[in-house]
Amino acid sequence: MPRYFFHLRYGASLEKLAVDPEGDELADHEAARLHALQSIRDLMAGPPSFAVRDWLACSFEVEDEAAERVLTVPFSDVVSEDDNADEPG
Amino acid sequence: MAYVQQSTVRNRLLKAMRAEDFARLQPHLESVELLVQQMLILPNARTEHLYFVESGLGSITTESANNRVEVGIIGREGVIGASHVLLGSDRAPYDHFVQMPGTALRIRADIVIAAVEESPTLRKLLLRYVLTEIIQTRQTAFVNATLEIEARLARWLLMCHDRVDGDELLLKHEFLSMMLGVRRSGVTLAMQQLEGAGRIRARRGRITVLNRDLLEEIADGGYGTPEAEYARLIEGA
């Protein structure tokens, strides 16, 4: 299985990126996206960080083993998903 | 086989013990290796042995459907299995396993129980030790209810640093994620904050503690109280 690295972008400036040194083995891009969404929910439900004033302004920059960006998952995606879930039909 | 001598043990409880009490346990102490991930005490199973840790780190964890979280750590200041056995239970609902390899002096639980029945001074020392475990657990409850990821990480690194030799800690973010009950990305984020402030250096799973005072500062009251209580209760500080 390919390994995906979930770098956490928490500000616009270059150094505001927490580079994931370990990564996770996941089946494909879609599995990586779901993994990112679960991480986002857990981070937002968990303790705060000194470095992050607003989780919703953060995003995951997901790279493959070749350090190519394959996905960007904004934290705000979990909110819009939940909103959609509330809509009837 | 030669018995282990009190003058050469590294376990802080064995060191602090009265010579007569050490002598009671001495013939029964057996030096064993602690291997990474080795399960020392299974949940809800009869506890046969206690482990006076000489080096390395043991972890008490609890498991839920999709994750495992650490609820206690024991290194050379303590005895793995002591709390439930000394308080009258032959089992505990937690995993007790080895997080960092090392050595321990293993002793049969029934021998310790008999020894504390014979010696009030030994009973007092070991029950005081159990109290220090309770204090650590209460501190963890406080920390988990109030502090930021960075403060939790700083506290955990200090506790770990107290229990190893040297300034280097071999710790993966995945492992710290379980220890702190925080997603791995949260650990990576917090590590970067501690590193940026010159408190630690982190390279490929190798964390070097550079400045303990600064770590204590960021731990924001999360570290220190249990450690001071241990010194007072066990070592008469």
Helicity range of chain B: 40-55%
Number of helices of chain B: 10
Uncertain stretches of 5 or more adjacent residues of chain B: none
Strand content of chain B: 15-25%
Topology pattern of chain B, helix = H, strand = E: HHEEEEEHEHHHEHHEEHH
Count of discrete domains of chain A? 1
- Give me the oligomer status: heterodimer
Mean pLDDT metric of chain A: 90
Distance between the termini of chain A: 36 Å
Q: Structural class, from helix and strand content of chain B?
A: alpha+beta
The tally of domains of chain B stands at: 2
Largest interface: A-B, 20 and 24 residues
Strands of chain A, total number: 5
CATH class of the largest domain in chain B: Mainly Beta
> What does the largest sheet of chain A look like?
5 strands, antiparallel
Total count of strands of chain B = 9
Question: What is the name of the CATH superfamily of the largest domain in chain B?
Answer: Jelly Rolls
Determine the mean pLDDT of chain B.
Answer: 94
Distance between the termini of chain B: 35 Å
Pick out its properties:
heterodimer; A: 89 residues; alpha+beta; five-stranded antiparallel beta sheet; globular; B: 237 residues; Jelly Rolls; Arc Repressor Mutant, subunit A; 2 domains; six-stranded antiparallel beta sheet; 10 helices
Secondary structure: elements and pairs:
The complex is a heterodimer of chains A (89) and B (237).
Chain A lengths: L2 E7 L7 E2 L5 E2 L3 H17 L13 E5 L5 E6 L1 H11 L3
Chain B lengths: L11 H5 L2 H7 L4 E5 L4 E3 L7 E15 L4 E7 L4 E2 L1 H5 L8 E14 H10 L1 H27 L2 H14 L5 E3 L2 H8 L3 H13 L3 E4 L2 E4 L2 H8 L5 H11 L2
Antiparallel strand pairs in B: 1-6, 2-6, 3-4, 3-5, 3-6, 7-9, 8-9
Helix pairs in contact in B: 4-5, 5-10, 6-8, 6-9, 7-8
